[in-house]
Design brief:
With about 190 residues, the protein is α/β, with parallel strands linked by helices. It contains five helices and five strands, in the order βαβαβαβαβα.
């Protein structure tokens, strides 16, 4: 549960961030959205002094042309740590970090939770999210509550729709035609939350 009125969302123009920003504003929260990594890395402690909750969604999800693994780590791990440290100093009450269930992919097909030790660290994104989790666990000073969410593949409407997500793509095809084509070279697991 989000325990404050003033909320900062990093990644606020992304698929999940844009939907969350609207959701929170509709419920009377005062929300500041920052999208680009360069913007949230420039935040100072004084910028965070009136913030109750930081919801940190911003990350590079993959290595793309012009982006190397070092830059991915700088944003996904180092900048996450720096933001959390500034939040502690500013007196932020809650820091919610979105990790990824990609950490579980490829592991044995058994029930898994955060205590599961056989994680998939073959992917640079998954490694960076796991390292960020571990880094946040070391930040114990102050009274800020740190929450880590290992999100599954999300789907549904967003002000910033993404049709490259499997289920969103299928729904888009169904809404405009009578044929649904599944184009995939791999097996995909989708989590449904009610």
């Amino acid at each position: 549960m989000i325990s404050g009125k003033h909320i900062l969302i990093t990644g606020s123009k992304g698929y999940l961030g844009s939907a969350l920003l609207c959701y929170l504003q509709e419920r009377g929260k005062i929300v500041l959205g920052i999208d680009r990594p360069d913007d949230f890395r420039k935040l100072s402690v004084s910028d965070l002094e009136d913030i109750d909750v930081v919801i940190h969604l911003a990350a590079y999800p993959r290595i793309e042309p012009g982006l190397n693994e070092e830059t991915l780590y700088q944003v996904n791990v180092d900048s996450t740590r720096q933001l959390a440290e500034k939040a502690i100093t500013a007196g932020v009450k809650q820091f919610i970090f979105t990790s990824s269930c990609m950490l579980y992919m490829g592991a044995s097909p058994i029930w898994k939770d955060e205590r599961h030790e056989n994680l998939n660290l073959d992917n640079p994104y998954a490694r960076s999210k796991f390292q960020a989790e571990k880094t946040l666990q070391t930040l114990t000073e102050g009274s800020m509550k740190i929450i880590v969410l290992r999100l599954a593949s999300v789907f549904g409407y967003s002000p910033n729709m993404r049709y490259d997500f499997g289920l969103n793509n299928l729904m888009a095809q169904a809404s405009v035609g009578d044929k649904i084509q599944i184009r995939s070279h791999k097996t995909v697991t989708i989590s449904y939350v009610e």
